[in-house]
Amino acid sequence: EKMDQLMTAILNAVDPKLHDYLPILTPFNYNERNRALKLRRELVDFVVGFIEKRRKAIRTATVSSFSYLDTLFDLRIIEGSETTPSDEDLVTLCSEFLNAGTDTTGAAIEWGIAELIANPEIQSRLYDEIKSTVGDRAVDERDVDKMVLLQAVVKEILRRHPPTYFTLSHGVTEPTTLSGYNIPVGVNIEFYLPGISEDPKIWSEPKKFDPDRFLSGREDADITGVAGVKMMPFGVGRRICPGMGMATVHVHLMIARMVQEFEWLAYPPQSEMDFAGKLVFAVVMKKPLRAMVRPRVQ
Q1: Is 147 exposed, middle or buried (0-12, 13-18, 19+ CB in 10 A)?
Q2: Can you tell me the mean pLDDT for 65-85?
Q3: Whole-model pTM?
Q4: Domain residues of the chain, as ranges?
Q5: Is 165 helix (H, G, I), strand (E, B) or coil?
Q6: Where does heme bind (predicted)?
Q7: d(CA 205, CA 216)
Q8: Interior/surface letters 67-105, b for 16+ CB within 10 angstroms, e for the rest
Q9: Is 1.10.630.10 the CATH classification of the domain at 98-295?
Q10: Is the peptide bond before 23 cis (omega within 30 degrees of 0)?
Q11: How far apart are alpha carbons 226 and 21 in whole angstroms?
Q12: Tens digit of pLDDT for each residue in 142-190?
């Protein structure tokens, strides 16, 4: 519980602010910066206790399974001479894993279920596809490739609700001109994702949740940006999200299993979904999803 509280407080403290895009305003951020550093110190002190506990368990051979943290103990950093990550490095890596690996995936699933509630005919078709593909057994990862509607639904979720508003910054290595603007070397470029995935010049009815756009041949998109940048929920190029593969597997699997087991309905009944969002590390629903579930009759 304390870990969750600390992580939430830190994420709120480091939310993108105006000075991130106008560095000249940085001096006016003194109090917020100090607050973020204090929270960071508190997080480090808290998590280091778990790290030491795991080290001790490994030394005394009392561990029965391999963990993510164990892989970090084996890391080597080569910068002049070979070193191992410091405790602060380990805390940072664990924090990134927890935030980027869970918050964004959880947000995508919440947005997805909300869209399926708002579009019951799509939810019904998805259930029919799941039922015809796997029968009464639980969906597993191997089934995903056989379900084209499921893949289209997840792609449309990521188009309509990318995990964040901006990709990681990209640096300009050669001077160029873009839409009449001179872009010098050394400038950091930020890509606003909804501006791409909701562009009416690229997409027909961009505000509409329509997985069929990917099935009918009307439109297509590669979420990695390799075949053309029409959507890039995980970024592109060498700075693409390293957890993209795992995240998409989890979203496909969770959406499929949740629809397989339950029919999802609005709560209160007949109410409309509120698709307003807010940025808390990931873009989440401003009003957390409230839903009724009805067990499927097998």
Answers
A1: buried
A2: 77
A3: 0.79
A4: 1-85, 98-295
A5: coil
A6: 241
A7: 15
A8: eebeebeeeeeeeeeeeebeeeebbbbbbeeeebbebbb
A9: yes
A10: no
A11: 27
A12: 999 999 999 999 999 999 999 888 887 788 899 999 889 999 998 888 8
